[in-house]
Amino acid sequence: MARAVERALRLLMAIAEPANEESSGLRHLAAAADVDKATALRLLRTLQATRMVEQRADGSYALGSSTLRLARAAFARAGIVGRAIPIMHELAEATTETISLGERHGDANVTIYEVESRHAVRYANTIGASAPLHLGAGGRATLAFSEPEFQERILASSLERRTDNSITAADALRAALAETRARGYAMSWGERTPSTYSVAAPILDASGKATASISILWPSRGEAIDRERLATWPVLLLAATQRLNGDR
To answer: How distant is the alpha carbon of residue 149 from its chain centre?
Structure first.
């Protein structure tokens, strides 16, 4: 049993290794974890059953949503989540809406922590939920302040559409990223889920680059209310993330 656990952990670490991100098929992972392919396949299927691992459409493997639960517990004691939690709860108290922390994982924005709204009708993600970086305020806030070469790779890729409001043209996305950088925050209306709003600001490292963002999420509360929120909440959010960015 101990040997099987050790091998499974080696596979997980191989999948998590950034150098393996572009080559995480069965053969490569088996070699990286120093196990034969049959053993690797058996262990990967077990890990898939517990959502520690997921298999992509092309047959390669990636870390699953259950690993984010483990990360959440660790981050709550240290790291970005631990620093963000008090600020997120303050924002949730001030807005009464969902406050979401998303982090860049590959080409996706993944929810790693969330303070969900107490409204009966609310807009919220789930821990481990992911979306392409170009869709929604959270991902776009991170993308706009990411490395230029990474942005260009996303701009050159096929941009997924989820709703009629999704940005799927490279020129439109480039303009939206420039606007986000100029304002310091991103705004979205129904790009991932119809009739929902989000406002997001990036969390920056010492070099000024972003790998995460904090978003305020809400379903439309009526034209007048939504307009007022879009005019005032970005200031509230920027003040919050500036505190977080200064606490490194």
So the answer is: 19
Q: For 68-245, CATH number?
A: 3.30.450.40
The mean predicted confidence, pLDDT, of the chain is: 90
Cα dihedral 14, 19, 25, 26 sign = negative
The answer to whether domain 2-63 and domain 68-245 are alike in fold is no
What is the phi-psi region of residue 11: left when phi exceeds 0, alpha when psi lies from -120 to 50, beta otherwise? Answer: alpha
Task: Specify the DSSP element, H or E, that contains 16.
Answer: helix 2-16
Nearest-angstrom CA–CA distance, 151 and 122: 31
What pLDDT digit, counting tens, does each position of 24-82 carry? 788 888 888 888 889 889 988 988 898 889 888 888 888 888 887 777 666 655 578 88
First and final CA of the chain: distance in angstroms?
Answer: 41
Give the model's pLDDT for residue 74.
Answer: 63
Where do the structural domains in the chain lie, given as residue ranges?
A: 2-63, 68-245
Type and span of the H or E element at 100: strand 98-105
Closest CA to 245 of 213, 218, 223: 213
The helices-and-strands tally (H runs, E runs) of the chain is: 9, 8
Its CATH class, for the domain covering 2-63, is mainly alpha
pLDDT in tens, 147-182: 999 999 999 999 999 999 999 999 999 999 999 999
Sign, Cα dihedral of 142, 216, 219, 224: negative
What one-letter code names the amino acid at 33?
A: A
